[in-house]
Amino acid sequence: MTELLPGAITTAYAGGQLLLTAGSGVGILTFNNPDKLNAISVEIAEGLADALTALRDDPAVRVVILTGAGDRAFISGGDISQFDKTRPNAEVAARSAERFRQRQGLLANFPKPTISAIRGYCLGGGLGTALNTDIRIAAHGSTFGIPAARLGIAYGFDGLSKLVSLVGPSRARLVLYTGIRFSAEEALQFGLIDRLVAPDALWSTTLQIARQISENAPLAIAAAKITIREILRDHDKRDLQAIKEIGTQCMDSEDFREGRRAFMEKRTPKFTGR
Ligand code: COA
After folding, report:
1. Which among 144, 174, 146 has a CA at the least distance from the CA of 159?
2. 104-130 tens-digit pLDDT
3. Does 80 contact ligand 1 (Cβ within 6 A)?
4. Per-residue model confidence (pLDDT) at position 149
5. Closest by Cα among 50, 68, 42, 38 to 12
6. Ligand 1 center to 97 CA (angstroms)
């Protein structure tokens, strides 16, 4: 990944099964267990939480991309070989699911924009992970699905609410009842992914979008992220105060002044996030 971001530094998590590469305002998290099609083990899930915390707290990082190593998979789901240990019965499974939910919550509630760059299998918890990012870009030939009914797994509220909000309840039922795998073209048609590109254009497209985001005003992006998050909440749970506060911050920001000035002076604005 360092070749994609000149001068970037890579840090290993989960014994190297998750790599964090950061540079030029962009953080890339690579699920790096291609022998298991990047299935998420407990160790990787723990590493993901640590890596996300590091990216959240790094002021130089303005946007985060998730991807899978190799060309066969984004993520093939939770590591099924650990299910005997992590889900031997309902009680232990509930505790494991709660820990998974909390770690994925870090991603779902990540304060900066997140993008999934998907190539190959994107299944089960892998699709759940992609759904917890803001934007999904996939290469032709990618395959999607939630084989929960084939494994006997129940998906919880958090796991399904994003799917239902994107594809609607009827398609969500089709996907879950059958456990079918479907193509990237269908995923685009369902509204599950936002861009579909040739495999060799996956990185250029993803990085172009990431750069566009990283060059824009961070507070305006945060305002969009917070407002869209609240729109998706139930009416009575909406935090309208949070929307008001970020709106005030934006309007009072140096970046808003810089944006106006740059427009009048016909030059590219330089935003600082203040
Ligand atoms: N958990 C653990 N190991 C996995 C895995 C997962 N979710 N997905 C793939 N692997 C492993 C396989 O066991 C295999 O390991 P091995 O080489 O030691 O036998 C390796 O990755 C390659 O997978 P394989 O099944 O041989 O590749 P394939 O091309 O025949 O099939 C899939 C690819 C994705 C269709 C198939 O691996 C699969 O169905 N995986 C499980 C998907 C799933 O149910 N995910 C939801 C879990 S919540």
Report:
1. 146
2. 889 999 999 999 999 999 999 999 999
3. yes
4. 94
5. 50
6. 20
Domain 2-214 class? alpha beta
CA of 254 to the centre of ligand 1 (A): 50
- The pLDDT-based confidence of 60 (bands split at 50, 70, 90) is very high
- Answer yes or no: is pLDDT of 101 > 90: no
Cα 37 to ligand 1 centre (Å) = 6
Q: What single-letter amino acid sits at 96?
A: S
149 lines ligand 1 (CB under 6 A): no
Predicted confidence band of residue 2 (pLDDT cuts 50, 70, 90):
low
Nearest atom, ligand 1, residue 121 CA:
34
CB of 272 sitting under 6 A from ligand 1: no
* Cα of 102 from ligand 1 centre, angstroms: 25
